[in-house]
Fold these 2 entries.
Entry 1:
Amino acid sequence: MAIEFTVFKGSTSRAPGLGHEGVGTIVEVGSRVHEISDFKVGDRVGMGWFQKFCGHCKVCVRGRQNLCINNEQFGTANHDQGTFATGIAWDVSALFKVPDGIASEDAGPLMCGGATVWDPLFSNGARAGDRIGIVGIGGLGHLAIQFASKMAFQAVVFSRSESKREEAMSFGATEYHATEGRDSLEGITPVDYLLITANTLPDLTP
């Protein structure tokens, strides 16, 4: 809820629709939906921070819709639409079919938190076997470890203390390094990519 309150505090006189990630079942489609997609009534779909992509700008054409300069997104457009509602209207460009094997309560967090860590893992040229450093084991970090492991990367986890070692390893971490009390990371094989999921930027001084 912190994101919702941060976004909307003082930004609108209307009662906003809260919720920026969710899963629902389509009950009605627009008259032209069948022309641009195969979504239909009864489909279970997920939706996240973005509510619409233009589909024709340079980044959309390249498949990087999250960078669309013409997007409509939570907090800046359609203030009455939020995933905590019993019903919402969403553009087909920002809907994603949820596979039958994934429960709705598990799929919901993937629409924002999952997408946040999936994109850098998927879009920056990392290959199987690469060492992906993951800093911070909160909500995003947990997902990053699981994704990295399933994508055949080496998930090299950095956390302040030893308290989350067992948890991180159970999610697929290849290595776990506690940084508290260390003056340097000397002796650790360098990583190929670094994904920072902590809420503060760590000291990256060599």
Entry 2:
Amino acid sequence: QVKIRGYRIELGEIETRLLEHPAIRESVVLDVDGPLGKVLAAYLVPRSST
């Protein structure tokens, strides 16, 4: 769980929701320090199209 701009965010919940999409095989969500403060970054691995 991370706190961004006053909101508590569960990164695992976002990853779980992303994995519900049929085109996504793997996902990782991170909190990253950006120029305006912390932001979320999602890294995705697509399912094979074949």
